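Input record (one chain):
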Amino acid sequence: MGLHPHRRWGRRRLPPRDRERARPRGPARRDRGAPPPGPLPLQGGGGFRDTRHHRSARDARHHLPLHRRRAGHAAAQPRAQGPGPSLGSGTRVADGITVVELGGGVASAYCGRLLAGTGANVISCEPEGGSPLRSAHPLLPDGGSALHEYLGMYKRSAVLAGDDLERLVAAADVVIDEVDVEVGKTPEAVAARMERLCRLNPRLVAVVCGPFGLTGPYADRRSSALVDWAMSGYAAITGDPDDEPLQGGGPWCAYVNGLTASVGAMAALRTVERSGRGQLVDVAAMDAMTALHQWTIILATHQGVRKRRSGNRHAESFHPLGILPCKDGAVCIAVSSPAQWEGFCLALGMPELLTDERFASGGDRFDNADELDTIILPWLLDRSRREIVERLQE
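The corresponding structure, as predicted from the sequence alone:
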């Protein structure tokens, strides 16, 4: 997250009591209590439809920061319509926030879906003919896309361009876009469009998702789910030790990209409330995924240890901690703490393992995992998943 590309339009920082008085009173502010300006052709018949009840944008009379809304305040009252999780008072976290989604990919759509699920009024602007996500597999019996149904939850869809889109963005709080070099949405093209839209609204939070961000040595490279997975280091540590690296299931990186962008958007909105200046949230999938590594990078940089693939076993720490075979399939067992190890041995009726030096610590058990498996597998293979789970949960 960084400063808005047009910070020169931002006002000097003012005390909170003076910010409302200093706020410009142009049309974009007066229209806060009305639907988005300009025609909003919610499409019908051709697969386009309004997927949520309309909720008006923020009312200027009740324009309070999220953390200052009281349960009894008009802006904090429960809405008659509209989905999304709510707090005890009925107020949703992103109530009153208007989001314009321009991306067209999974990452930007998931970012918008998370914001919509917490109360934001999200308008997904699609090209003529609809978003590519509408034809993404798997398909539902009616021919629609299950992925699009999920990512489009709580949103409204519209076909907007030119002046209509600019009027909508001028009154919005957040705009989301996505870099995809494969379809011509290069970092330069996305940055240029964001720059143009930010000129219309100096308080805008501009969110950009993409594989490698707007800048950097990889910014102009093409990518895919597999490339994102490999570039963030996960392919190297996924799979069996003696086999090739493996890809994770589904577009994991895109979802983590969208999740990170949604958190960045909410943080940026708080910054706008305090400074009056718009913000740029530039999220690279490679960065977001790399940040999720538990200790892979620390081991490499501080100890020179390269994390290895360990299959269904938890790498370099504990055992049993993974997926093991049983009578009717497989069961996941996680034993990490000394207390859990003691309980596991007693549940199996093997207290002698507690005094076996080969299994004295989690690291010892991992180093001697094959020997430990030889001892415990007969017990597991003689019992069903339900029996094992019930016994170990006692």
